[in-house]
Design a protein that fits this description.
alpha/beta; Rossmann fold; 5 strands; 6 helices; five-stranded parallel beta sheet
């Protein structure tokens, strides 16, 4: 029964990144039972998942450079739909213009790649609290 309670309290995270090495790292960092991580490869799959899931995600982790939609386009679509959840951007090269676009869409946590595992986990925990 104790294990069941831990799973029910798990932070639900959606990770959107097309790099298998990044999603593998995220699966390791955000392991059960404390976290429930769902990962998808692109923005279209992320929007489909967000539209289909009735239980909201606590945190959404987004890459900038992906097929079909950029991170900025994905975050814009998420905000337009009014989907709840805090957003963290993890990307290799964020220009000042892209950073500003994210800030205007209420994304305040951005990490460069490679990212510090402890800082990312701390940001997720802080935002989900």
């Amino acid at each position: 029964m104790l294990i069941l309670d831990a799973v029910m309290d798990a932070l639900k995270i959606l990770a959107v990144d097309n790099e298998p090495s990044v999603t593998l790292s995220l699966r390791y960092i955000f392991a059960r039972p404390r976290y429930e991580l769902i990962d998808v490869e692109n923005g279209i799959d992320a929007l489909a998942r967000l539209d289909a899931d009735s239980d909201p995600y606590d945190v959404i982790i987004v890459d900038q450079k992906m097929p079909h939609l950029t991170g900025v386009e994905l975050v814009g679509a998420i905000r337009e739909r009014g989907i709840p959840g805090k957003i963290i951007v993890v990307a290799a090269n964020l220009s000042s213009q892209i950073r500003e676009a994210y800030e205007q869409m209420d994304v305040h946590v951005m990490f460069g790649k490679p990212f510090d595992v402890g800082q990312l986990r701390s940001a997720v925990d802080r935002l989900a609290a």
